[in-house]
């Protein structure tokens, strides 16, 4: 019904991308054909496009169920930037705002409409949606529906009624994290009808998993070495407790690294501010508890460092997976200590529900097996999610490739020295992914810095996170291609018609004005 050109033209016009990522096109076609679909795709795989593009092409409204208000707002803002009409409905809006969204939705004004599961469960919401020209329902973070998942949310259970309430609407479920058991649960609970199933590989070749059991001093010096290795790049450090978050921030600052804390007991204004400072690249390092992350979609995170054992492989995969969404090489360092096991066991012991306790033990044994094994980390993760990789070595994790020099070094002094000497080498790592490297110029570091500075200014001026202005991959492509006019600008990855209209003149002027100070 929709030919290739229609799809690619929409991809080009609104997203500024030339090609689909593996699997995206097939998912888009299934959704356009009105099938139920179940999609498991790792973080950064490009799930949102799989429901946004069909909604745009169908010209009706896709209702997206999403667990977090912040995430909904982000997505709606990004879509608005791309010229796609989108809205969300939640309790933070005034009743006038809510009625306005509801009225405009009935008129069919939106291609995407974001709702929380609680909102969808309300009888008045169901009645209202019956008068909205709905194209299909998209369930984001669908694993939250399963008790077997690590992020079970009771309110997701109410989605089981969706099928009865809207028997004619297709349902599309998306998750980045689902073992076989959770996948079955998703199909069951959502009552999917003969769904087209898509399971992308969990292998993310740009992520290098580095696991090491440490004592305290080694852990600290390795953390510093990682930060030096990724100087100038964004980093997340996960600490197990609020006290450790504070200690770690103080320690990093004593060593000259600016870092902001993030945890559940901070005043919410402070938390929000810290998150924004990190999102806008004002401070590069964020130290958080696991409270930080869900809904964070910053593309260019160069490293995620864990300072203790996560509760499960799924949790680890998801947190570590916040690195490298842009497809560029990134490090996931799991620096754990012997005492972490005791701490986890203690917490499991405090769980009251025997079934929940049992599931927690199972997860504990799996993560313990993961860190103790002397076999490929990447493969272990893929196998955990039910994949049978055809390869046996990923060549990059600490087991397959020995890890980078900064990581191999053990004692504090050696680590610091080695980190300095290897910084030069880090750029030589190959880039994974299917991005067209683009022709012409090599990336001029000075120009890239200037473009980043320009982006920071725009981000402040327009009150939007820097990555919503342009991704790093777009800035790099700009440096390579040096477009001289609007036509050439539209060939840059991540620049569609709307972004070209919004920022094109400023950008072209900045590029024309650029004169390197050296060479
Ligand atoms: P997920 O929801 O699966 O974690 P996103 O939808 O946030 O992933 O997409 C991850 C990143 O990949 C985003 O920065 C997005 O702009 C980019 N992306 C998605 N599809 C494509 C594509 N076809 N070509 C280039 N970049 C893409």
Q: Can you put this structure into words, describing what you see?
A:
The chain has 519 residues and is α/β, with parallel strands linked by helices. The chain has three domains: 4-199, 3-Layer(aba) Sandwich (Rossmann fold), CATH 3.40.50.300; 207-421, P-loop containing nucleotide triphosphate hydrolases (Rossmann fold), CATH 3.40.50.300; 445-513, HRDC domain (DNA polymerase, domain 1), CATH 1.10.150. The protein is built from 24 helices and 13 strands. The protein has a seven-stranded parallel β-sheet, with helices on both faces. α2 runs parallel beside α3 and α20 (445-462) crosses α22 (472-481). The longest helix has 19 residues, at 354-372. The radius of gyration is 23 Å and the shape is globular. The termini are far apart. Adenosine-5'-diphosphate is lined by residues 17, 20-21, 24, 41, 43-49, 176, 297, 299, 325, 471. Adenosine-5'-diphosphate (ADP) binds at residues 17, 20-21, 24, 41, 43-49, 176, 297, 299, 325, 471.
Radius of gyration over all CA atoms, rounded: 23 Å
Structural class: alpha/beta
Q: Indicate the overall shape.
A: globular
Helical amount: 40-55%
- Please, how many domains? 3
Mean pLDDT: 88
Q: What oligomerization state is this entry in? A: single chain
CATH class of the largest domain: Alpha Beta
CATH topology of the largest domain: Rossmann fold
């Amino acid at each position: 019904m929709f030919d290739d050109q229609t799809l690619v033209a929409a991809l080009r016009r609104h997203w500024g991308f030339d090609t689909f990522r593996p699997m995206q096109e097939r998912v888009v076609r299934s959704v356009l054909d009105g099938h139920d679909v179940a999609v498991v795709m790792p973080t950064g795989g490009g799930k949102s496009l799989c429901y946004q593009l069909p909604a745009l092409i169908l010209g009706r409204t896709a209702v997206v169920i999403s667990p977090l208000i912040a995430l909904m707002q982000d997505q709606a803002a990004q879509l608005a930037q791309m010229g796609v009409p989108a809205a969300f409905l939640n309790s933070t809006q005034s009743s006038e705002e809510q009625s306005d969204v509801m009225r405009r939705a009935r008129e069919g004004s939106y291609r995407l409409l974001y709702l929380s599961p609680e909102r969808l469960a309300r009888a008045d919401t169901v009645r209202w949606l019956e008068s909205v020209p709905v194209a299909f329902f998209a369930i984001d973070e669908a694993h939250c529906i399963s008790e077997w998942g690590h992020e079970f949310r009771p309110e997701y259970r109410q989605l089981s009624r969706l099928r009865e309430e809207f028997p004619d609407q297709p349902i599309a479920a998306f998750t980045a994290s689902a073992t076989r058991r959770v996948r079955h649960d998703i199909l069951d609970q959502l009552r999917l009808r003969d769904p087209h199933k898509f399971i992308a590989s969990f292998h993310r070749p740009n992520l290098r998993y580095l696991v090491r059991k440490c004592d305290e001093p080694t852990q600290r010096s390795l953390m510093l070495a990682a930060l030096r290795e990724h100087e100038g790049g964004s980093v997340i450090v996960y600490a197990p407790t609020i006290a450790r978050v504070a200690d770690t921030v103080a320690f990093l600052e004593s060593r000259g690294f600016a870092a902001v804390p993030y945890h559940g007991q901070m005043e919410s204004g402070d938390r929000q501010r810290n998150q924004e400072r990190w999102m806008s690249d004002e401070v590069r390092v964020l130290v958080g508890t696991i409270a930080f992350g869900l809904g964070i979609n910053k593309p260019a995170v160069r490293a995620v460092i864990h300072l203790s054992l996560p509760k499960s492989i799924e949790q680890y995969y998801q947190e570590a997976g916040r690195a490298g969404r842009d497809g560029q090489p990134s490090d996931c360092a799991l620096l754990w200590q012997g005492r972490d096991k005791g701490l986890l066991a203690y917490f499991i012991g405090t769980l009251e529900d025997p079934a929940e306790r049992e599931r927690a033990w199972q997860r504990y044994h799996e993560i313990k097996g993961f860190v103790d094994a002397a076999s490929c980390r990447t493969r272990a993760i893929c196998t955990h999610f039910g994949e049978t990789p055809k390869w046996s070595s990923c060549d990059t994790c600490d087991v397959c490739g020995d890890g980078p020099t900064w990581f191999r070094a053990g004692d504090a002094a050696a680590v610091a020295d080695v980190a300095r000497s290897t910084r030069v080498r880090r750029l030589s790592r190959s880039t994974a992914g299917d991005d067209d490297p683009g022709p012409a110029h090599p990336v001029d570091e000075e120009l890239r810095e200037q473009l980043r500075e320009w982006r920071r200014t725009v981000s402040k001026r327009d009150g939007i996170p820097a990555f919503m202005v342009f991704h790093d991959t777009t800035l790099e492509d700009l440096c390579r291609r040096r477009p001289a006019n609007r036509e050439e600008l539209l060939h840059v990855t991540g620049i569609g018609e709307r972004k070209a209209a919004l920022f094109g003149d400023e950008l072209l002027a900045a590029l024309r004005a650029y004169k390197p100070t050296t060479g």
